[in-house]
Amino acid sequence: MSDPSLKKANRSLTRQLWIFAAGAFAFGFALVPLYRVLCEVTGYGDRTKLVEASSFTAPEDVNRQVTIELLSDAHSIGDWEFRAEVGSIKVHPGRLAEAKFYARNLRTQGVVAQAIPSIAPLQATKYFHKTDCFCFTPQPFDAQQERELIVRFIVDPKLPMNIDRLTLSYVMYDAKSTS
Questions:
Q1: How crowded is the C-beta side of 10, counted as CA atoms within 13 Å?
Q2: What is the pTM of this model?
Q3: CA distance 62 to 92
Q4: Which contacts (CB < 8 Å, 24+ apart) does range 121-127 have?
Q5: How far is CA 40 from the centre of its chain?
Q6: What is the pLDDT of residue 62?
Q7: Residues 115, 88: Cα–Cα separation, whole Å
Q8: What H or E segment, with its residue span, contains residue 36?
Q9: Which of 29, 105, 51 is closest to 74 using CA atoms?
Q10: Taking the CB of residue 159, how many other CB atoms lie within 10 A of it?
């Protein structure tokens, strides 16, 4: 290869690398709005919604009861026991309620788990306000450690009258594999 053609090839490669680096930099900036959209859609990681939910107050509707079914799953992180203390609870909309879950790491080493909540039916999601939840932060467990996990919530009295049953479910994931 002659010297001028080598310089031309080097310039072309350098230009391509600069374009690639600029594209990667731009993609990094594009992730911020994409993350915000993801947070809006899922409610996960959106601190404004957490603050709003924790300050939610509404008059209690003592004439109405809503059944909250509690489900849990931890198949994705292996040797793990994770279950609701009871299968369902009845709550009055507007009253602070509490549900308890039991978790135990059956592994011989520690694990950090993250619970991802889901509410069904989907249209009821905006009427279910968690004020305190183990799902807000990753949960470190030592080997064979067990503990009670608590979620506190309020069902908004504005929940449509045709909805009298909600399902609150959690799936536990290995937090290290999701980062």
A1: 7
A2: 0.64
A3: 6
A4: 121/163, 121/166, 121/167, 123/160, 123/163, 124/159, 124/160, 124/163, 124/166, 125/43, 126/156, 127/155, 127/156, 127/158, 127/159, 127/160, 127/163
A5: 12
A6: 78
A7: 19
A8: helix 3-42
A9: 105
A10: 20
DSSP state of 45: T
Phi and psi torsions of 100, nearest 5°: -115, 140
The pLDDT of residue 15:
93
Phi, psi (deg, nearest 5) at residue 148: -90, 135
- pLDDT per residue, tens digit, the chain (179 aa), is 568 888 888 899 999 999 988 888 888 777 777 777 766 666 666 556 555 655 556 677 778 999 999 999 876 666 888 899 999 999 999 999 999 999 998 888 888 888 889 999 999 999 999 999 998 889 999 999 999 999 999 999 999 999 999 999 998 888 775 44
Give all strands of the β-sheet with 146-155 in edge-to-edge order: 80-84, 97-105, 146-155, 128-133
Q: What is the C-alpha to C-alpha distance for residues 115 and 138, in angstroms, rounded to an integer?
A: 7
Unique residue bearing structure tokens 């992730």:
31
Structure tokens belonging to residue 90: 């009845």
